[in-house]
Amino acid sequence: MLDKPDSASSNFNGNGHHEAQLPTELINELSSESLTFVESLYTSYLESPASVSQEWQDYFARFPAKVTRSQKLSFGPSFKRHTMFNPPGKQKREGSERQTMKIADRQERLDQLIRNYRVRGHILASLDPLGKQRATPAELMPEFYDFSEKDYDRVFSTSSFGGPSQRTLREMIQWLRNTYCRSIGAQFMHIDSLHVRKWLQTRMESTANFLKFERPEAIRILRRLTDSVVFEEFIQKKYVGLKSFSLEGAESLIPLLDLAVEKAGEQGVDEIVFGMAHRGRLNVLTNIMGKKPREIFREYEDSVPEISVGRGDVKYHLGYSSDWMTESGHNVHLTLCFNPSHLEFVNPVAMGRMRAKQDRWENIDRTKGIVLLIHGDAAFAGEGVVQESLNLSELKGYRTGGTIHVIVNNQIGFTTDPAQSRSSTYATDVAKMLQIPIFHVNGEDPEAVAQVVRLAMDFRKEFHRDVVIDMYCYRRRGHNEGDEPSFTQPQMYNTIAKRPSVRDSFLQRMLERKSVTQEDGDRLREESISHLEAELAAARVENYPHTVELPAGIWAGYRGGDELPADQVDTGVPEENLVNLLLKQAEVPEGFTPHKKIQRLLNIRKEMASGERKLDWGTAEGLAFASLLTEGYRIRVSGQDAQRGTFSHRHSVIHDVKTGKKYTPLKHLVEGQGKFEVVNSPLSEAGVLGFDYGYSLDCPDGLIIWEAQFGDFCNAAQVIIDQFIVSAEDKWQRYSGIVLLLPHGFEGQGPEHSSARYERFLQMAAESNIQIAVPTTPDQFFHLLRRQVIRKWRKPLVVMTPKSLLRHRDAVSSFSSMNSGSFFKVIADPSDIDPSQVKRILLCAGKIYYDLNEHRKQAERDDVAIVRMEQLYPVPTEELEKALAPYPEGTPVYWVQEEPENMGSWRFIYCQFKGNVFGRHPLKGVYRAASASPATGSGRSHQFEQEMLISESFRKEE
Questions:
Q1: DSSP string spanning 384-401?
Q2: Which end of the chain has a smaller Cβ tally under 10 Å, C or N?
Q3: Which residues contact 133 (CB under 8 A, 6 or more apart)?
Q4: Beta strand pairing call for 166-168 and 155-157
Q5: Are 213 and 174 in contact (CB under 8 A)?
Q6: Neighbouring C-beta atoms of residue 577, cutoff 10 Å
């Protein structure tokens, strides 16, 4: 391939490197990759001649001895400048060139084979414990690259591959198959970063992706597998027919988690937050989380039904927390999140919890805590919230430093085969949207599982990114213990019935290697059985203590339950403080150039501070935020366009029009203030609300807000609302102060942008589980937000926020209304009309008040009173009774709403008072006609309907 250089055929380039010149015919044969390859070989040869094959040693030996590492040959652009070179010894040289070209060609074909094993080797991996294999792709067969049998013992350079620098083709293919086609299939070549791919290649290829157990490790894995298998067998025998969602067939999950926790401890991780569905949950609770089996057995016994009337959850949905002391002496706190049957919706909740913890620790590099999520294969491929959660992983406002995803791949979903449940090859293919590796592993090979766990944990530590472990296994029983799986998968379950447990197959393998003895296996099994028998006996004692979990740790001092009089707190702020805080929000750094309209807004804020203008909604919100921050509270606001605000009322982040730099005034109020974070979320509702709800679970002393772009967008997060926000206290005794800001109001903007559908929240309102408010003035919103944080009563808060009222001339407030007092749940009629002359009382909530009040003024109707319910739930009974007390008994109360009769508050209000308010006032309603859709799409029709609504509200009594 290369002729021996002489004085006529070589020179030194400007860098002092020797340039070898090649004839035209050779240049035409070589690709740029081949030239680079030859140069790399020569560099290796200069370092160590033995690092390249004998053929290349013989060839490179012909170059001048004076060429050193500092003057290495460059096979570069100079080739094209010397294509006419024709040195002596042409015939000998041409033979040498042909031989060299053959060597380079063979090497290039091998490099292509190596690359395709890295890309496609996972297809040949032995992943399925049930033995199903896929056809070998042509590009993984040596014949595809024109290799024949005589090439198998030919020596090639393998210095770019892990392990020895020279190997025969036969050895190389075996090494490739060991690395990429044994019990581990790796997908990583979709990652753009060469550095990341090289890191993964080196880690896998240097060891052939194999971790061999020594006796201590073998005993540990065997113990974990034994505990896992025996627990499932014990449950099946003692509680025949009762649901447990057995882990049988996937018992390797327990040693996998064990190794993950141990590795986390070695890496200095202080806490792991787990999220998982119900499959195998009881096993994880017992063997990883440390929940005593007696507690689980007691839940099975269910012998004291009166303590769970109307509350609690099934045993395989419950969460748990514990501390784990690793063998390295590091304590790791473990938290398993509670989980509803909506399988994957716990994912963003767990991520939000970890983000809150990291923020509290001020762990900016996100290294002290890890989220570990356990998925089912069908759910991972099928649930959209999975994609939403993956998308959050690398966003600044939601990053946690990388989540470990473990898919317990049963190869079946309920009764559905993969061919019917996904369009992709793997259940994990959605994860290829990220720049992360996906490791498929045979769950019946614990050594491979161990290798993958350590590799995954090290990858997460090195690159702070997510990583996926797809553990292939099977489900020995049906979806639950009452199912008969052979109804729908007879062949699969015929195969499963003949298989030994993963524990028994692992024990046999270790026995063959003499890593453990049969006595070890028998002893571990007997110990596990004896332990469970003792726990069962303890669970069945008559005086078994029933304990009530009280808020502890960061939640100590907070409470749920019913609202008490003591929960009414003064939320006022001195006017001097408010003025200073408003001026701070009107400042920008010197040399900073805001948009001209933003500058006008800043000037208006200054006018408000000086008393020249009343305070609008956005200003009141900013003052609530600023006052809380100066008192040391943390605030997090997230949602679509949350920084600016959908309706341009917030502008919490200001952009320099010249430089693009950003400035957030609320971060620059006083020294030592609370942390303020406002995040523009991705176009996602369920994932983001789940994340922020999770954040609120570990931040009781902060104001955590999710804002919908329009109120109705909350319907895309309904699972988070139904299964977590409104029911978590009742099901799991978990409190949250999450705030939902839902823009609401009928303004002729069509069905989707009128209603936040708050009838749904009212329908779910019971046992003081949530707060639902419809404030009508800026000062009310100010007090409402401050009340949410200052008082210790922790309940989710749903606020129907305005759109047109953001700039309504009458929806304004003064500093004086914010100086003292608190949020008014009910606002009595502020007019000076004589109560004794009132013929009807209009009771309403939200924006409709302004339309009603305007009409009353214009019509000069002194016989109509207007009372506002600013809080709909918990129903402010005392406050409402006080507001209605001045009016004569028998005066009718009309509930007036913009929404159709079957939406909004009407049916809730009617149900509360049964047609008569406090036995003094007949109750009637004014509303749009019942409708399948919230509102008309016609602006003129809306106005026509609105006029009819107002007219009906003021119709004189007959």
A1: HHHHHHHHHTTSTTT--S
A2: C
A3: 124, 126
A4: antiparallel
A5: no
A6: 16
Kindly report the backbone phi and psi dihedral angles of residue 331, in degrees, each rounded to the nearest multiple of 5, phi listed first. -85, 130
Distance of alpha carbon 388 from alpha carbon 431, whole angstroms: 11
Q: Contact at 8 Å (CB) between 654 and 594?
A: yes
- 858-861, Cβ contacts within 8 angstroms, sequence gap of 24 or more: 859/954, 861/954
Provide the pLDDT for residue 40.
Answer: 65
Amino acid in position 11: N
Which residue matches tokens 């161990």? Answer: 450
**Cα distance between residue 256 and residue 451, in whole Å:** 10
Shortest CA distance to 573 belongs to which of 620, 631, 627, 630?
Answer: 627
Cβ-proximal residues to 879 (8 Å cutoff; 6+ apart), any chain:
824, 825, 826
The strand ranges marked E within 262-361 are: 271-276, 320-325, 331-336
Q: How many residues does the chain have?
A: 958
Of 278-287, 698-707, 745-754, highest mean pLDDT: 698-707
Within the chain, what is the greatest distance between any pair of CA atoms? 124
d(Cα 148, Cα 506) in Å, to the nearest integer? 38
Residues 752/746, Cβ–Cβ less than 8 Å: no
Q: Tell me the mean pLDDT in the region 148-153.
A: 93
- The position carrying tokens 């942008």 is 753
CB 226 within 8 A of CB 182: no
Q: Please report, rounded to a whole number, the percentage of residues in the chain having pLDDT higher than 90.
A: 75
pLDDT band at 64 (very low <50, low <70, confident <90, very high): low
Residue 489 has pLDDT above 90, yes or no: no
The stretch 253-278 carries a mean pLDDT of 96
Contact 911, 903 (CB under 8 A): no
> According to the model, what pLDDT value does residue 487 have?
86
Residue 313 to residue 296: CA distance in whole angstroms:
13
Residue 362 half-sphere exposure toward CB, CA atoms < 13 A: 3
Q: Which residues of 626-655 are buried (b: 16+ CB within 10 A; e: fewer)?
A: bbbbbeebbbbbbbbebbbbbbebbbbbbb
**Cβ contacts of residue 171 below 8 Å, gap of 6+?**
none
- Residue 92: pLDDT band with limits 50, 70, 90: low
For residue 11, what pLDDT band results from cuts at 50, 70 and 90? very low
Q: Is residue 47's pLDDT more than 80?
A: no
667-671 own/partner pairs: CB under 8 Å, 24+ apart: 668/584, 668/587, 669/581, 669/584, 669/626, 669/629, 669/630, 670/630
Reported as a single tens digit per residue, the pLDDT across 610-647 is 999 999 999 999 999 999 999 999 999 999 999 999 99
Cα 778 to Cα 616: distance, rounded to the nearest angstrom: 6
476: its two tokens: 């020995």
Mean per-residue pLDDT over the chain, rounded: 89
Question: Could you report the per-residue pLDDT of 696-727, keeping only the tens digit for each?
Answer: 999 999 999 999 998 899 999 999 999 999 99
Which pTM was predicted? 0.89
pLDDT at 378: 92
